């Protein structure tokens, strides 16, 4: 286990001769500092999206849900910069 997305860790990148980040479309791999539970609702924060990508939230409006006041956060990812095919293919090189 590393501080990187498991499928984007440096040893995975090395096993595909450095082509993974080029194919995926970004170099955001480090999950250190991403939220796992509690954060300041009035500030944007990084989220690990189930190992698919790391994204920064945008703070939205204050809303009420089932009688509980909360602050909405939004995330928008460009699919061209967050391609998932490399994760789905798996890794067989170097074995």
Query: Major sheet: order of its strands?
Result: 1-2
Net shape: elongated
Structurally, how many domains make up the residues? 1
How big is the Rg? 16 Å
Average per-residue pLDDT, rounded, comes to 79
* pLDDT < 50 runs, ≥5 residues: none
Work out the number of β strands.
Answer: 4
Overall structural class, as computed from helix and strand content, comes to: alpha+beta
Strand % is: 15-25%
- Give a short account of the largest sheet: 2 strands, antiparallel
What is the number of helices? 3
Q: Helicity range of the residues? A: 10-25%
Q: What is the multimeric organization of the chains shown?
A: single chain
Order of helices and strands: HHEEEEH
Alpha carbon gap, first and last residue? 18 Å
């Amino acid at each position: 286990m590393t501080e990187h997305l498991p499928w984007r860790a440096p040893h995975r990148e090395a096993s595909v001769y450095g082509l993974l980040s080029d194919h995926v479309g970004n170099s955001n791999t480090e999950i250190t500092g991403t939220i796992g539970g509690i954060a300041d609702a009035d500030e944007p924060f990084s989220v690990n999206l189930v190992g698919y990508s790391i994204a920064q939230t945008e703070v939205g409006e204050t809303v009420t849900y089932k009688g509980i006041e909360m602050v909405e956060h939004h995330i928008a990812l460009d699919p061209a910069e967050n391609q998932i095919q490399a994760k789905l293919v798996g890794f067989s090189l170097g074995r």
